Amino acid sequence: MNTQEYMIALGQQARQAASQMASADTGQKNRALLAMAAALDAARPRLEQANAEDMQAGRAKGLDAAMLDRLELTSARIDNMIEGLHQVAALADPIGGITGMNYRPSGIQVGKMRVPLGVIGIIYESRPNVTAEAASLCIKSGNATILRGGSEALKSNQAIAECIISGLREAGLPETAVQVVATTDREAVGQLISMPDYVDVIVPRGGKGLIERIAKDARVPVIKHLDGVCHVYIDRAADKVKAINIALNAKTHRYGTCNTMETLLVHNEQASAVLPDLAERYQASGVELRGCPETLKLLPLIKAADESDWSTEYLAPVLAIKVVSSLEQAIQHINQYGSHHTDAIVTESYTDARVFLRAVDSSSVIVNASTRFADGFEYGLGAEIGISTDKIHARGPVGLEGLTSEKYVVLGDGHVRQ
Amino acid sequence: MNTQEYMIALGQQARQAASQMASADTGQKNRALLAMAAALDAARPRLEQANAEDMQAGRAKGLDAAMLDRLELTSARIDNMIEGLHQVAALADPIGGITGMNYRPSGIQVGKMRVPLGVIGIIYESRPNVTAEAASLCIKSGNATILRGGSEALKSNQAIAECIISGLREAGLPETAVQVVATTDREAVGQLISMPDYVDVIVPRGGKGLIERIAKDARVPVIKHLDGVCHVYIDRAADKVKAINIALNAKTHRYGTCNTMETLLVHNEQASAVLPDLAERYQASGVELRGCPETLKLLPLIKAADESDWSTEYLAPVLAIKVVSSLEQAIQHINQYGSHHTDAIVTESYTDARVFLRAVDSSSVIVNASTRFADGFEYGLGAEIGISTDKIHARGPVGLEGLTSEKYVVLGDGHVRQ
Q1: Residue B375 and which of A213, A306, B260, B324 are 20 to 30 A apart at CA?
Q2: DSSP label at residue B91
Q3: Are B119 and B145 in contact (CB under 8 A)?
Q4: Residues 6 or more apart from A393 whose CB is under 8 A from it?
């Protein structure tokens, strides 16, 4: 069997499993998740062995330190996978819920029932714990899934997959509801994203390059995350203490996350009050500052920002700063240079807050809180398959509901159309 | 300016208009819709003249009678366009509505605000009244739109567009919020569906060939409708009178609509009770019947169905009939051969209804009512841009809400992430 035939076979099996998963009851799905958690716990030596082999091969292949770190399945990470499965089991089951069931003038009743999407293809890079995380969300939302992890994590992923399959088996669910692609042939990805008959949606997780490539070539819908060029705007009516706390937290809490602030916008009437203090504290944390001409007047020692800084996701201790002369200019800058991910205003003005909330076209729009809150757990989704920067289907942090759709249900009593 | 440059210019103008439309208030959007209605009423002679020119050119080009019928802008159709604009003005404005605003353990409040998608490209064939219909839905949902109608309706569409633009102008909204493509060059479609920077979603309306081609080539998401292979299943526990009424209505109320039944499934314990009566009444209406071997035993004079009949959308007075031996077999047939559009069960069994509702994977699943009810107006959406057979984003009849997305809104009081 060549790679194409192999992927089609996985697709056909997934499609079959999906219809069983759609009708699986909540207790059965939860039993599978808890059985997987128990299986992972029992398989620790096997998981560590498989991961050690991947790590060794990775070192031999010359993977860099960051990549090796992501690849490593420490005991704490196994704990986290197990804990994650328990958490997903504890979440409410979205499937089958009916909303808006109302009578129509014709006498029929019409509502909507939440249903799984069907088959979800997930493509990710080195971190093997994604295997358990992604599988658990797909199972709970009644979907079948085909998981394609990084080739460097193949042995770890397969050891985790064995635990997942034993959990499915124990709960009487189809073992093909979760399939880990067993080949490292890159053609497998091309095939996975080109089978609309067998795969309903693709969720790519990883670097921007991977995601752009997949979005460009896919023949099925893609739920994706591209850039996080996030802003904090310190409004004319900002409280100085809140402004400084939020601007510091949004940048320095973590540098490598997508909801980290990359550009700080400051109203010109606030600039002299907040920028010198802020600059001192950023520099104490080792953050490199790059300013617009107005900023440079107040902070003459920092680097000048150029046009490309306004649209750069640094993912590093670097911050661009721009002074603006109005709320409208701030909003315009955010909508033009930002990535429509997460943007915050700091203000005590009711009207400015209201205008900002309505006009900023981002998946999360925040008043008086740090951009770092843009996260499925902080938002109460209970779990997160990713953050979508698309507007279609799912926007912002994507939890179980993003892996579902709704169908209309109609109840009559022999009604016919007149 | 070549066609590509022209389409990019339309796209850039639409993108600019979209941000103004997103912030337009409800009253302003309604004033625009009512002003358009008044402008159409005042422009009747101009509309009729433009349409007469299209009709004449169409006849000269040898368009068939069905196409000429769709192209014609009768006085009653102008009345309908005007009435449609009043109806859309009367609908609730979905934009800006906030739901689920709850406090989180961190102290922030998180909810979701409904927002427009941005720029919607609509591609349709001969019917010029779609121009006003589609424009009105896009305006009310705060979107900008680029409309590409059939080349045979160009003059009619442009006359309607003049009325739309005068309505936008009167309400102080950007005139480029609705742009009708002024060239008949087919390259315009190819360009419209390949500009993710300027167009957020494409809604194609028309024949299956057109829609398949667009879905295949589009570089932006497509909300689409393919087949309507709809079923009525007469269950073992069906009431005979309801079964006959529903089966007749679902087939004979209209033959050419996507929610018309194309295959009738009958439980074998019901077949001898209902099929002879039904067959007589279908034949009295001129419906050609094609049966499975079991059906042929009861109705020996009808044609035998072959494998292709089970997946054919006749859009004509033809009906395929199959006898099944269980509810499960009916569900399996529907999920395998149907188009996941609209499927109904006739039953008095609580349990059978519950199983059918959950297991049938279609955009509308109906108990004891005709498939013909699957329609935005019957469902209370107030208006319909189309019926989606996709699962992603919008499924089933698509009203204003299908042209919107949601963004997260977060309210804090200086909160930072710990």
Answers
A1: B324
A2: S
A3: yes
A4: A201, A221, A223, A402, B221, B392, B393
CA–CA gap between residue B345 and residue A119 (Å, rounded)? 26
Query: Residue B301's CB: how many other CB atoms inside 10 A?
Result: 9
Q: In chain B, which residues have their Cβ closer than 8 Å to the Cβ of A396?
A: 407-408
- Residues B243, B274: contact at Cβ < 8 Å? yes
Residue B25's contacts (CB-CB under 8 Å, 6 or more residues apart) are: none
Distance from the first to the final alpha carbon of chain B: 56
Domains and CATH numbers, chain A: 3-223+396-411 (3.40.605.10), 230-373 (3.40.309.10)
- Encoding tokens for residue A95? 């499937």
A365: enclosing H helix or E strand: strand A364-369
User: Which residue of chain A comes nearest to B346, CA vs CA?
Assistant: A414
Token pair in block for residue A6: 């192999």
ipTM value: 0.92
How far is the CA of A64 from the CAs of A56, A58, A150, A411, B382, in angstroms?
13, 9, 15, 59, 58
**How far apart (Å, rounded) are the C-alpha atoms in residues B312 and B315?**
9
Per the structure block, which two tokens stand in for B164? 């739309």
Residue type at B198?
A: Y
The span from the CA of B161 to the CA of B138, in Å, is 14
Which amino acid, B332?
Q
A391 vs B413: CB contact, 8 Å cut-off? no
Q: Using an 8 Å CB-CB cutoff, list chain B residues near A365.
A: 113, 407-410
d(Cα B108, Cα B98) in Å, to the nearest integer? 16
Give the separation between CA A50 and CA A44, rounded to whole angstroms: 10
**A225: closest CA of chain B, how far (Å):** 15
Place of tokens 């991947």: A54
CB of A178 within 8 A of CB of A138?
A: yes
Locate B379 and state its tokens: 């469902």
Amino acid symbol at B376: G
Q: Is there a contact between B27 and B140 (Cβ–Cβ < 8 Å)?
A: no
| Token pair for A183 | 């080949």
Q: Which residues contact A207 (CB under 8 A, 6 or more apart)?
A: A125
- Listed in sequence order, the residues at least 6 apart from B56 whose beta carbon sits closer than 8 Å to its beta carbon are none
Residues near B245 by beta carbon (within 8 Å), at least 6 away in sequence: A414, A416
A45 CB-near residues (< 8 Å, 6+ apart): none
Q: Are B145 and B121 in contact (CB under 8 A)?
A: yes
Beta-ladder partners of B178? B145
pLDDT along chain A (418 residues), means of 10: 95 96 96 98 97 96 91 95 95 95 96 97 91 96 96 95 97 97 92 95 89 89 91 98 98 95 98 97 97 97 97 96 98 96 98 96 97 94 88 93 96 96
Q: Where are the alpha helices (DSSP H) in B141-267?
A: 154-170, 187-192, 208-217, 240-252
A166-175, B48-57, B219-228, B270-279: lowest mean pLDDT where? B219-228
Q: Are B415 and A143 in contact (CB under 8 A)?
A: no
SS3 B128: coil
CA gap A302, A168 in Å, rounded: 57
Nearest-5° Cα angle at A169, A164 to A173: 95
Which residue in A108, A245, A355, A375 has the most chain B C-beta atoms within 10 A of its own C-beta, making it the best mutation to test that interface? A108
- How far apart, in whole angstroms, are the C-alpha atoms of residue A135 and residue A352? 43
Best residue in A222, A365, A392, A393 for a mutation probing chain B (most B CBs within 10 Å):
A392
Q: What is the mean pLDDT of chain B?
A: 95
Task: Give percent of chain B with pLDDT exceeding 90.
Answer: 90
String of b and e for A15-31 (b: at least 16 CB within 10 Å)? bbbbbebbebeeeebbb
CA B118, CA B338: separation in Å to the nearest integer? Answer: 33
Whether the CB-CB separation of B320 and B332 falls below 8 Å is answered with: no
Instruction: Provide the chain A residues 9-68 that lie in CB contact (below 8 A) with chain B.
Output: 19, 22-23
